[in-house]
Here is the input.
Amino acid sequence: MDTGRRKLVSWLFGTNALRVCPEDKPFWYTSGTIGPYYINTEFLYGGQEKAGELLAVIDREKNNRLACPLTIAAMLRQNYVGNEIYRELIDNMTDSIKGNINVDEIDLVSGGERRDWFFSLIIAEKLGKPHITIYKDLAAVMSQGELTRIMSGREIEGKNVLHIADLITEGSSYERAWIPAVRNRGGEIKWSLVVVDRKQGGEEMLLDNRIKAFSMIGVDKYLFEEALRMNLINKRQFTMIMDYINNPKETMRRFLLEHPEFLEEALKSDEKTKERAMLCLEKNLYNIDIGK
Here is the structure.
């Protein structure tokens, strides 16, 4: 693993953008499944508190669709100056784009609601390209400098778009919203750059849509081997993660069978954890009679 990727590993753990559970306490995911690590890529902005502040601003401002990109971009610029990790990450992402894509072929840069915007707006500025702020309902705003406008009709007919995202898992957000939002206006997403690729099918989905996919780092054995060498995780955590990467469902099924108290405690825990545990039970996601 090269120096740049090692540095990104240290940033992911140092900002808690990547957290690994204790060996006996996997994380509950929104889907009702469990797993050994949790990723909040937006924490690379400056940690959980700062990322939360920006998300709160986005939630407050996003209904004012013309002003929202300008408000966010101003905060990103300020943070770029003041936060070394964020600044170096944005510079590295920009360099990665220039190293893999002919920038002259990029007409626009896009980012989807909400966490993509942590990275896409400022990278568009660095590349000198207009930005498409895409909302979950497929509405879109084009901005460059201090000018914004609602996009309507096929006003980017034949234009090539680079989409910047914080994270890709299976690529469902691309399929549901980001790709159609651009195509509906006549453009095509030709390239995608994500900070973190969870290696769960997203890249393959993009390639099926004729999108060249790039990532700063993938969630794979090489990442965790480096984390182990850097003493960011221990051997038992590493073993659990490797088992999970090789067979996530069976690894967590075995964990639940060996630790029946884990689910019992979750059902007595806070509301969010209880809700996820109930979903696991109701859908019997691990094909075992957990209730007994």
The chain has a mean pLDDT of 96. The first strand starts at residue 18 and ends at 20.
